[in-house]
Amino acid sequence: MFLNKSKLATAVMCGLLSVSVLMAGCGGGAKKDAGNTIKIGVVSELTGPNASYGNSVVKGMKLAVKEINDKGGVDGKKIELAIADDKSEPAEAANAMSKVLNQDKAKLSMGIFTSSNAIAACNVSESAKVPFLAIGATNPKVTLDKDGKAKPNTFRVCFIDPFQGTVGANFVLDTLKLKKAVVLIDNSSDYSKGLAAFFKEAFTKKGGQILGEEAYLQKDTDFKAILTKIKTLNPEVLYVPGYYEEVGKIIKQARELDIKAAFVGGDGWDSPKLVEIAGGPALENTYFTNHYSPDATNAESKAFVAAYQKEYNEKPDAPAVLGYDGAKLMADAIKRAGSTDGAKVSAALAATKDFPAVTGKTSLNATHDAVKSAVIIAFKDGKQTYKTTVNP
After folding, report:
1. Do 30-159+298-372 and 162-290 agree at the fold level?
2. 12, pLDDT greater than 60
3. Going by CATH, does the domain composed of 30-159+298-372 fall within 3.40.50.2300?
């Protein structure tokens, strides 16, 4: 079918418009944002079983953006967050990332605390060549492709599980002086499976003994059959690298079965809801590795805690401070890049060295992972208490 000149001109204009919209959605369009704002897409777990993480992340980000904008923004432009809920599901995380890039026209992205969701979301941002800064996703697969090479546009502001698992194993062996462990894994979670593997490797290499390994799935509620089996093994410690919803129920039910062993886990424990679910008494003799303690005494931490409590009338958890650090790091990268162009911001993120984050000086290594300290948190009288800091 042939077109007359009028129709041909209209078709050409529509085609050009479609290309420009596609390029904007893929982060490959204009070098500078139109107007006086920089739009950053945020994907986070705002509902579902991991909602405590995502809401804290967003609170931390909003506080950071408020501080940045109150000081004039970045190169005179104010930051605007386009926020989408991933509903604590990997498939929804991919959909949410697509929304912020294609509908909200964000040229940069960040967010997500859970590893499976981050892996799903960054598949979308990588395809679009849009920088993505993961906030709390600690599994190595977040920043590595199937060949073990660094994804060019994916970064993270948190430490990774090989380090966290080793810190946990050393703490059990060297500080708690316990050598007989059972590992309880969430088989539906990349985070749990990965962290368990790194803990077991470090624990056995240093002389620890794994008496057994059991599995559950996210959203399970009754763990008494598994725990009854574990009790017969008489472990000194249970290593449970899961998320707060299930961990709280596991610890509560274990104490009801009179299991007195120590419990140790990872940063997935960090939520105020853990105490609500497990109960304070059940959490005695439990510990977890984390990114941060609000009881840290350095000046940066004190200032952040004070500002956060003033803004939200509550104490920050690790997802909140990582959200804050992530937003500040992204703004710093934009400033160093002198642009919101995806390739330039990715290069600036990759070059991050000794960024003064609240969670400690942060540098990104060759695989785009943060090299930084971890802390050990214990529960006492239903409250988190800082025990020690472990440097990389």
Report:
1. yes
2. no
3. yes
Note the pLDDT tens digit of each residue in 218-239: 999 999 999 999 999 999 999 9
Q: What is the CATH number of domain 162-290?
A: 3.40.50.2300
Long-range residue pairs from 4-11, CB within 8 A, at least 24 positions apart, any chain: none
Q: Is the dihedral of CA 309, 313, 318, 323 positive or negative?
A: negative
How large is the average pLDDT for residues 104-108?
97
Question: Is the pLDDT score of 1 beyond 70?
Answer: no
* Domain spans in the chain, listed from the N-terminal domain onward: 30-159+298-372, 162-290
- What does the H/E/C string look like for the chain? CCCCHHHHHHHHHHHHHHHHHHHHHHCCCCCCCCCCEEEEEEEECCCCCCHHHHHHHHHHHHHHHHHHHHCCCECCEEEEEEEEECCCCHHHHHHHHHHHHHHCCCCEEEECCCHHHHHHHHHHHHHCCCCEEECCCCCHHHCECCCCCECCCEEECCCCHHHHHHHHHHHHHHHCCCCEEEEEEECCCHHHHHHHHHHHHHHHHCCCEEEEEEEECCCCCCCHHHHHHHHHHCCCEEECCCCHHHHHHHHHHHHHCCCCCEEEECHHHCCHHHHHHHCCHHHCCEEEEECCCCCCCCHHHHHHHHHHHHHHCCCCCHHHHHHHHHHHHHHHHHHHHCCCCHHHHHHHHHCCCCEEECCEEEEECCCCCEECCEEEEEEECCEEEEEEEECC
42-55 pLDDT tens trace: 999 999 999 999 99
- Which residues sit opposite 134 in a β-bridge? 111, 156
pLDDT band with cut points at 50, 70 and 90 for residue 350: very high
pTM for this structure? 0.86
Burial 198-222 (b: 16+ CB within 10 A, else e): bbbebbeeeebebbeebebebebee
- Assess whether pLDDT exceeds 50 at residue 23: no
Cβ-based neighbour number of residue 339 at 10 Å: 17
